[in-house]
Amino acid sequence: MNDAFTVGVIVACAAAAVVVFFLYNVYRGVHDSLANAVIGTVYNFRYFQPVTGTYERYLAKVVSIRHLDHWELGRLDFTSDYRRSDKNFKRTPTLVTCQMSDGEHRQFYAERSDMCKRTPVGNLLYNMGVAYLF
Questions:
Q1: pTM value?
Q2: Alpha-carbon Rg of the chain, whole angstroms?
Q3: Which backbone phi and psi does 64 adopt, to 5 degrees?
Q4: How far apart are CA 34 and CA 111, in angstroms?
Q5: 8 Å CB contact between 24 and 116
Q6: Interacting residues of 125 by C-beta distance below 8 A, sequence separation 6+
Q7: The 30-31 sheet, strands edge to edge
Q8: pLDDT by residue (tens digit) across 111-124?
């Protein structure tokens, strides 16, 4: 009975260590920036939503990066209906297109993201389709 308890404690500690290591690698990867993102890499980042004033966390694969100059930003402000009536809304020069784990594409202004990390197990989570959990 005493040996079974010892083995159970060791197995429980090992399982807890694996879970802690996994979560640590999801949230504590290599610090990076979406402005310097590499296409095809999975990033874990927090994005500021200017409409609600809150942050949302994403785990997504970078599909493309577009660096906008002054003229392109002005053209977007003129032609786009997105937040047209909001005078406080400012576009930033780096527009990053990411693919979510469900296949949806979303665009993010890189300068509005923070706590951006390349995680060692991010690609694994993304490919398994469980990236939405983080």
A1: 0.69
A2: 20
A3: -155, 160
A4: 8
A5: no
A6: 26, 42, 59, 101, 119, 131, 133, 134
A7: 30-31, 113-118, 42-49, 54-67, 94-99, 105-109
A8: 888 888 887 677 77
